[in-house]
Amino acid sequence: MKHAQKRTLIALAAVCLLTAACAKKNVAVAPPPPPPPAATRAATLRSTPPPTRTATTQHPAATTPATRYPNAVTRARIDELLAKIEDAYFDYDKAALRPDALKALEADSTELRDILKDYPDYKLTIEGHCDERGSEEYNLALGDKRAAAAKDYLVQVGIPSAQLDVISYGKEHPVCQEHDEACWQRNRRVHIIAMAQAQK
Q1: Which domain covers residue 98, as residue numbers?
Q2: For 167-186, how does the pLDDT look when each residue is reduced to its tens digit (9 = 90+)?
Q3: Which of 70, 80, 108, 128 could cross-link to 146 by cystine, CB 3.0-4.6 Å?
Q4: Is 46 domain-assigned?
Q5: pTM value?
Q6: What is the domain count for the chain?
């Protein structure tokens, strides 16, 4: 009997040792280390989107130039203001703005300035004209000086110089054909129009 009890005790001890050994191995395997690499991947993914956001924010900037031209209603108002601004007239063989020419250019130029500043790509053309007397070359140069004088005044009023172009027609486009002082005075002028390409 004593041998049987010893065997039983040895068997129980062996079972306990095996169970304890297995339990220790399970405890050692239980805590896995993979979560830190997953956190690193998440951090890497979080750092990737900013370039995409930067590219997205650049798209609105690409569409803004379309708004640099006035819409149809605003263009109609500009045309109305230009129609109110009478031609500025000049003395014979002169390019200096007379008081009546200054008054003509001053009319509604403030409102015109306020509209144009919002549309930097929209331009006006100042045409310089002369009467029939003098050579073609001389009148082209004189018409250019007259247009430049009107431009200088409008720039002083606050219209950006880049939005004002000048052209001289010399004596090529008279408003009347009579050969007298009354007609010649009407032909010595500057006239302001909206540029054709700006009205697309």
Answers
A1: 71-199
A2: 999 999 999 999 999 999 99
A3: 128
A4: no
A5: 0.62
A6: 1
